[in-house]
Amino acid sequence: MTVSILRFKAPLMGFGAPTTGAKIPTRRFPPQSMICGLIANGLGYDQSEAERHQKLQASLTYAARADQPGEVLQEYQTTDLGQPKMYASSKTKTVGWTTRGEPEFRDGDNKTETEQTYKDYLMDASYTVAVRSTLLGEEAIRKAMIRPERPLFLGRKCCIPSARIWRGTVEAEDVLGALRVPETFSGEVVDRPSVWCPAELAPTARSFTVTDKRDWSQQIHSGQRRVAQLRLSAAGYQEG
To answer: How would DSSP label each residue in 169-204?
Structure first.
């Protein structure tokens, strides 16, 4: 099959996970909802188009390789919810910028205290992602990455790519096999990098359950899948 190759490289990246309370973690591999959101953003999908996002997410199969795993950096944030601008309910006051060409506003919450959050990022990391969609062709993904309808970011709006994302296509048996193709490597790959893929592509490897799909109508993570983690060496894939 033909597989699209993407490179995620940035000073900071955020691989979101279900969040409760003030702690906002990051995964060690890009979640399915992030891959979907990145492509949808590049294609110009509106965030209100939940069904369109849902179909794209369901069509995606991918594997990710940590060429440079980076380190986790925790950012401490405070937000004064009592500021007048935090109550903007019309487009007369700007609360936050978006990549949609218009500001977003906070509404429907009566909190006035100062909130504290601890937000994790991956610092100085580089990932190669092999992705395939049964809904989109490779040319559509290429267009989304090379000539995006809106600025692209890696997980969070402040995480701007420091290198081009689109790296071409390769022919492989599946998305896991695509990450062994020499063209997907650069000079920055660590020895025996970690690789994550759908568990069915590596049935003998250690696997675990993740909740990394998004219910786009409710804007929350929901739904589970099994993911396998392996190590890639010169001899082939080995259990991590």
So the answer is: EEE-SSHHHHTTSGGG--TTPPSS-EEEEEGGGSTT
Q: Note whether 184 and 167 are within 8 A (CB).
A: yes
The DSSP call for residue 188 is T
Closest CA to 132 of 181, 171, 182: 171
Question: What pTM was computed for the model?
Answer: 0.86
CA pair distance 129, 109, nearest whole angstrom: 38
Task: Confirm if 164 and 142 have CB atoms less than 8 A apart.
Answer: no
Query: Tell me, what's the pLDDT at 234?
Result: 77
Query: What is the distance in angstroms between the CA of the first residue and the CA of the last residue of the chain?
Result: 26
Tell me the pLDDT tens digit for each residue of 164-175.
999 999 999 999
